[in-house]
Amino acid sequence: MLEVRRLRLLAELAARGTLAEVAEALHQSPSSVSQQLGQLEREVGVPLLTKAGRRVQLTAAAEVLVEHTTEILARLEAAEAAVTALGDETAGTVRVAVFQSVALAYMPQALADLTRRHPRLRVMLSQRAPEQALHDLALRELDLVVAEHYPDHGAPHFDGLDRRPLTTDRLRLALPPRGSGAIWDDITSLAEAGCVPWAMEPPGTASRHWIEEQCRRAGFEPEVRYETDDVEAHVALVESGNAVALLSDLMRVRHRTAVRLIELPGSPRRTVFTATRTAIADSPGIIACRAALARVVPADLVLPT
Amino acid sequence: MLEVRRLRLLAELAARGTLAEVAEALHQSPSSVSQQLGQLEREVGVPLLTKAGRRVQLTAAAEVLVEHTTEILARLEAAEAAVTALGDETAGTVRVAVFQSVALAYMPQALADLTRRHPRLRVMLSQRAPEQALHDLALRELDLVVAEHYPDHGAPHFDGLDRRPLTTDRLRLALPPRGSGAIWDDITSLAEAGCVPWAMEPPGTASRHWIEEQCRRAGFEPEVRYETDDVEAHVALVESGNAVALLSDLMRVRHRTAVRLIELPGSPRRTVFTATRTAIADSPGIIACRAALARVVPADLVLPT
DNA sequence: AGTATCCGTAAGCAAACCTGAAGGGTCGCG
DNA sequence: CGCGACCCTTCAGGTTTGCTTACGGATACT
Questions:
Q1: What is the distance in angstroms between the Cα of B48 and the nearest Cα belonging to chain A?
Q2: Which residue of B has its CA nearest to A4?
Q3: Which residue of A has its CA nearest to B43?
Q4: Model confidence pTM above 0.90
Q5: Do B1 and A64 touch (CB under 8 A)?
Q6: In the UniProt record, does the keyword Ligase occur (chains A, B) (predicted)?
């Protein structure tokens, strides 16, 4: 009988690309992974890996095996979830990742709510960009993710993921407060923000991609002078009269900022959703976490400008 | 992550009943099985076994786990079959079981055909009663089974089995040759065989159950004086003028017997089929074996009386 | 009551696994 | 073009895991 542990190594290799990465992800030495895969190859009697430069490439047979393995791993996880669900109380540990504004605005309250209701449930929270978080979720490094979806921007798709909307929040342009200087005060729409410095998230994020697209549609290429994934820094840069930036309502939940807000064309809203793997979607820990989030986060986030 | 090897032990326990039987089936010591199940119990954190007299009983949680495990094992097997199917040649080993008349009439030829076409395919053949064979097939102790199905007699059902008809053969009553004695010569139908000794297979077999039912419908309870699962012995007992017996055409393929044959009411036919587990139904070894059987066994067995 | 069967625990032992070091090959950069 | 960085593999080693035997408690059958 094929060993699932070995099959898993192959699946991880397919997902991560190099044998060294697999080893690091599973906290093993590359040597061990190599040996195990060699053993698997010997067992099935069909070559699974071919050398490709200094890396390895999966053969067609290996791809077939990976396909089955994905199913098997999901089923194994589902089995574990199902049987722990039969236990008396929601316990165990759930690894959650959220992006910054949710972490700041709602997680303290959500966590307090969770530990009060389920003292034996251990929640490990990490802050992670949505794209990375979904990726790690698919790789079973996380159990629950709060991610975002910008309008008309195809969110990355991963198989076996269970997504549920959490809330939506308005996206606006944030300008320095009135009196910070004429160049800011003259701006009354996005189209007029072509000649001022911007603060944006790093390239590769959905946020960056989306706002750049909006700028181009408005007729200009933004001058990105400040680049950071810390949205709090964006706010600080705008408040202090150094830049304009995209600002979502989620960031304004904790403390009202002095920034000036301008509606974007079409009053766009970002969708915030939770995601987990389908195999564990019914496990008590996941259900409890989602419920806590739903209690804490308003279904429709509407803040006065 | 749950170890599949341990889960398998639990599944086998569910199928076999006692921990000792599981150990024997997997060629291990009962102690080992007990330890592994204990480990599994510790891992899931939920009790899986309760003492029931000197045996153990599965808890509801364990049953859930078994259900998932069955799926996982099937998938694992399918993965292995799929990847070996990609290999250049049909090789490996297939464990086949057939019942007596097929073993005698057709297997020598079928085996010769197989080893000629696929020299690297190793076939392990055993002779086994259909009920037992199907049972062992479901338990993964066999890979391919040739079994029978009597008309109006519900064949035992096992999940995950792939059945395909192989042939049908006529069922008749066999009497001693003319001249063996008046008590035999006077019989011209089943209804008149109520006061003569019978040779039958042991109770619990489909054959026994079916012919007894036919006798009762004909208005008598048969006197079973000779009981053996060796159908060749039935023939010998009939030929030598000691009994009457049910005789299928399959038994007459090799050598014509001197027995006298009488049609049964409705000219009933038995169905002979091959069965394998769905997970491995597409593996080259299984396909090759089934093909060899189909070549050797006529689709419809019709022998002159 | 006696016996056989079954499950669980303890201790010794063998196999499997993982680690670390060394080697060969490839890619990228100066 | 040479060097370093990176990656995979092999080999020898220690450690963990799992298996086996032996023993004891409990239960069913005769």
A1: 10
A2: B4
A3: A80
A4: no
A5: no
A6: no
pLDDT, mean over chain A: 92
Q: Which fold has domain A91-305?
A: D-Maltodextrin-Binding Protein; domain 2 (3.40.190)
Instruction: State the Cα–Cα distance between residues B137 and B160, nearest whole angstrom.
Output: 10
Strand D close to A20 by CB, under 7 A? yes
pLDDT at residue B52 tops 80: yes
Amino acid letter, residue B276: T
* A4-63 per-position pLDDT tens digit: 999 999 999 999 999 999 999 999 999 999 999 999 999 999 999 999 999 999 999 999
Find residue B244's DSSP bridge partners: B198
| A54/chain B closest Cα distance in angstroms | 26
Side chain identity at residue B137, one-letter code: L
CATH number of B169-269, picked from 1.10.10.10, 2.60.120.260, 3.40.190.290, 3.30.200.20: 3.40.190.290
Share of chain A above pLDDT 90, in %: 79
**Cβ of A79 and B64 within 8 Å?**
yes
Token couple for A197: 């410095």
The sign of the CA dihedral A217, A223, A229, A234 is negative
Output the CATH code of domain B4-84. Answer: 1.10.10.10
* Confidence tier at A88 by pLDDT (50, 70, 90): low
Tokens representing residue B40 in the block: 């599994």
Average per-residue pLDDT in chain B? 92
Q: What is the pLDDT of residues B130-141, one digit of tens each?
A: 998 999 999 999
Question: Kind and range of the H or E element at A91?
Answer: none
Specify which residue's alpha carbon is closest to the C1' of nucleotide C24. A54
Q: How far is the CA of A14 from the C1' of C26 (A)?
A: 21
Between chains, do B82 and A68 touch, taking CB under 8 Å as contact? yes
Cα–Cα separations (whole angstroms), residue A32 to A26, A27, A112, B246 = 11, 10, 41, 63
pLDDT tens digits along B71-118? 999 999 999 999 988 876 787 899 999 999 999 999 999 999 999 999
The percent of residues above 70 in pLDDT, for chain A, comes to: 98
Contact A2 B79 (CB under 8 A): yes
Residue A48 CA distance to nucleotide D1 C1' (Å): 36
